[in-house]
């Protein structure tokens, strides 16, 4: 990957809807070689997809909670827990961690009552769970803007 590829990645992270002509102009290429590079980055798995960034409030999910969960430390329990998370759409991110806690979830729901229902009806009923701790997000200080891609 060279500096042009990195510039392409930076530009696409900032605006994934750029036309190939605009992208080519911004990175100093003509459209044809720019398109080849973008396709190669996609084929190589460097670019994994394109998404719209949605305002959580506009879709009724402005109440966010970070939830740390302890899961029994055996393979079956961890695998069952991770599989069950796939069926909970309110869990928008999930990470298995080294140490304690064993798992960190980011949850987006409408309000505190919706989170309480999720906590009672889904989270605490998952098998292998030994502890659930919730931290309500007061304010997002820094929005995700993509990965730094170097010089």
Instruction: Summarize the main sheet.
Output: 4 strands, antiparallel
The computed structural class is alpha+beta
- The helix tally amounts to 5
Q: Topology as H/E string?
A: HHHEHEEHE
> How are strands sequenced across the largest beta sheet?
2-3-1-4
Overall geometric form: elongated
Structure write-up:
The chain is α+β, with helices and mostly antiparallel strands and 151 residues long. It has five helices and four strands. The protein has helices at residues 3-14, 20-27, 31-43, 75-85, 112-121, and strands spanning 63-71, 91-96, 103-109, 129-136. It has a four-stranded antiparallel β-sheet. Strand 2 (91-96) and strand 3 (103-109) form a beta hairpin. It is elongated. The model has no long low-confidence stretch (mean pLDDT 95).
Write the layout of secondary structure elements.
Blueprint (H helix, E strand, L loop, with lengths): L2 H12 L5 H8 L3 H13 L19 E9 L3 H11 L5 E6 L6 E7 L2 H10 L7 E8 L15
Antiparallel strand pairs: 1-3, 1-4, 2-3
Helix pairs in contact: 1-2, 2-3
Brief digest:
By secondary structure, the chain is of the alpha+beta class. 36% of the residues lie in helices and 20% in strands. A four-stranded antiparallel β-sheet has the order 2-3-1-4.
């Amino acid at each position: 990957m060279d500096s042009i590829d990195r510039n392409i990645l930076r530009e696409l992270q900032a605006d994934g809807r750029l036309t190939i002509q605009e992208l080519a102009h911004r990175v100093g290429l003509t459209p044809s070689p720019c398109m080849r590079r973008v396709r190669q980055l996609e084929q190589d798995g460097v670019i994994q997809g394109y998404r719209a960034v949605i305002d959580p409030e506009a879709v009724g999910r402005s109440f966010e909670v970070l939830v740390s969960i302890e899961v029994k430390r055996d393979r079956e329990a961890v695998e069952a827990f991770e599989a069950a998370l796939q069926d909970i759409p309110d869990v928008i991110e999930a990470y298995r961690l080294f140490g304690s806690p064993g798992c960190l979830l980011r949850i987006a729901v409408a309000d505190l009552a919706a989170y309480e229902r999720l906590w009672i009806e889904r989270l605490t009923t998952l098998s292998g769970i030994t502890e659930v701790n919730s931290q309500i997000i007061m304010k997002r200080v820094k929005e995700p803007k993509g990965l730094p891609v170097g010089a």
